[in-house]
Specification:
GH26_dom; alpha/beta; 11 strands; Glycosyl hydrolase family 26; two-stranded antiparallel ribbon; TIM Barrel; Glyco_hydro_26
Length: about 375
């Protein structure tokens, strides 16, 4: 059936008129919906305002027999924990301030991952000397792996690894900077199977050897898992004594989900530190359920509690592990997820706005002086 040209033109004019009438309100409605959606996501300022910055006066006390403690109202900021994750961090945040220190790990049976690179069975690399070479005016946060399994702690207590400790002492002295050494970190964690008696004996021997070799730039950190302990031993049974401990450390992983109250086991460690006049550091921390790319829920679920805890409990040093846990072959953490800050731009921006505050000590020519480390 033939359709005349004028009829088609009339229909086109009609449809055009309808579109011109209805399209602007539709576009405006879509734009408003988008803006309304964006406005429901809090601003960075609002995210930071959720942090409780009040300090519990109960945790402001005098420190005894310790070293390299930040001044009142200050917290040393440390990041970690492998060559790969540190390099990746620098690539993603090239213009951010460098933290006051970096973390590295090694095992007491062998002098590896200290003076040169060493790739371990998790597929990651450790290199203490890299931290010294790359980052002047920063501290080294050194974690010594020592467990009860395979009689590692027993051998250490008998002196089987004294040669390794002496090499470490020589290297530590050569760095001429503060080193925070965590001897047998997470000593009370069930995964380490450390018996208190063998742990204390090994810890004391290690400290005695390091002191005898003149490694005076090492602060000794007694690092608790701050969770249900191995065989329900009392915390005090693992304690080497005030003369052997400069700092008390805790781990913060699942602890921070839910509230700034990290539970009775953590409270027990904090109170023990207070009773013995030792400063507390968060020696390891990470939001192990992951940082989502699409939302910022983890900020209120974990980061707000984490930072509130730092303020409330007067934490003097904090080490954050910027890691994709799913890439690591570590038994027992298969359910842990990607917790790297750059997974979510808004989370990372809030992180840096908080840690850029003067409270957090970062790399600077004045850092060592602030920590009471003598210039040589």
């Amino acid at each position: 059936m033939a359709i005349c040209k004028s009829t088609i033109q009339n229909k086109v004019i009609f449809l055009t008129t309808v579109l011109l009438f209805f399209l602007p309100p539709l576009l405006w409605s879509q734009e408003k919906t988008t803006k309304d959606s964006e406005s429901t996501e809090p601003s960075i300022e609002n995210m930071l305002s959720q942090i409780n910055t009040e300090v519990d006066p109960e945790f402001v006390y005098n420190y005894e027999q310790t070293k390299f403690v930040p001044p009142p109202g200050k917290t040393l900021l440390i990041m970690g924990q492998t060559v790969e994750s540190i390099s990746e961090y620098l690539e993603n945040f090239p213009n951010r301030k460098i933290p006051g220190g970096w973390s590295a790990y090694w095992g007491i049976p062998e002098f590896k991952g200290i003076a040169e690179s060493h790739k371990n069975n998790t597929g990651t690399t450790q290199n203490h000397q890299m931290l010294v070479d790359w980052f002047p005016d920063t501290v080294v946060h050194s974690a010594m792996w020592m467990v009860g399994k395979w009689n590692i702690a027993t051998f250490a207590g008998k002196g089987d690894y004294d040669k390794v400790i002496k090499k470490y002492a020589a290297w530590a002295k050569s760095t001429d900077r503060p080193i925070y050494l965590r001897i047998g970190y997470e000593f009370d964690g069930p995964h380490n199977e450390l018996e208190p008696e063998s742990y204390v004996k090994a810890y004391r021997r290690i400290v005695d050897v390091l002191r005898k070799k003149g490694a005076d730039n090492i602060a000794f950190v007694w690092h608790s898992y701050a969770s249900k302990p191995f065989k329900d031993y009392k915390l005090s049974e693992w304690y080497p004594g005030d003369n052997y401990v400069d700092w008390v450390g805790i781990s913060v992983f699942g602890h921070a989900y839910g509230s700034a109250d990290f539970g009775p086991y953590c409270d027990n460690v904090l109170n023990f530190a207070k009773e013995h006049g030792k400063p507390v550091m968060i020696a390891e921390s990470s939001p192990v359920k992951g940082i989502d790319k699409e939302n910022i829920e983890v900020w209120n679920q974990w980061f707000v509690n984490f930072f509130s805890f730092i303020y409330n409990k007067n934490i003097k040093a904090v080490s954050f592990i910027n890691e994709n846990w799913q890439k690591l072959s570590i038994p027992g953490i298969q359910h842990w997820k990607d917790a790297r800050l750059y997974t979510n731009e808004k989370i990372s921006e809030a992180w840096f706005q908080e840690t850029n505050k003067e409270r957090y000590l970062k790399r600077s020519p004045e850092l060592f002086e602030q920590l009471g480390y003598p210039k040589h």
